[in-house]
Amino acid sequence: MNRRVWLSLALSSITLGSTAQAAGAADEYSISVTDMHCSNCARKIAGKLLAVQGVRGVRTSVQTHTATVVAQPAKTLSGKAIWEAVEKAGFKPVKLTTPSGAFTEKPKE
Questions:
Q1: What's the whole-model pTM score?
Q2: Cβ–Cβ contacts within 10 Å for residue 62, how many?
Q3: Per DSSP, which regions of the chain are E strands?
Q4: Main-chain phi, psi angles of 87, to 5 degrees
Q5: Would you give the DSSP letter of residue 105?
């Protein structure tokens, strides 16, 4: 594989924090971000999401403009805190999918 292609593929998906988990041990939350275009954007967003209380890990995808947040086992994350973390990173969230439903605007909790 061409080195440039490999590097591009390696940078297109970033994983921060520990996301190893037993089946069903932790919930996942997915947030779509319209303007996540590069690995620097993804790192910035992931850093803010990792600071949210109860977050175990974050996976980002530049190709799909999404961040997947993994909760610590037996923890329920605040949808509002996840949404606001993306805003604090300087980006605009457009959809948040949680274990309890989907939101297209900032959740109240």
A1: 0.78
A2: 19
A3: 13-17, 28-33, 55-61, 66-71, 93-98, 101-103
A4: -65, -40
A5: S
Q: Is 107 exposed, middle or buried (0-12, 13-18, 19+ CB in 10 A)?
A: middle
Predicted local distance difference test score (pLDDT) of residue 98:
95
Query: Under 8 Å CB-to-CB from 64, ≥6 apart: which residues?
Result: 32
Cα–Cα dist 83/80, whole Å: 5
Q: What distance in Å separates the CA atoms of residue 25 and residue 6, rounded to the nearest whole number?
A: 33
- At 36-62, the pLDDT tens digits run 999 999 999 999 999 999 999 999 999
Q: Which tens digit of pLDDT belongs to each residue from 64-85?
A: 999 999 999 999 999 999 999 9
Give the CB-side neighbour count of residue 48, counting CA atoms within 13 A.
18
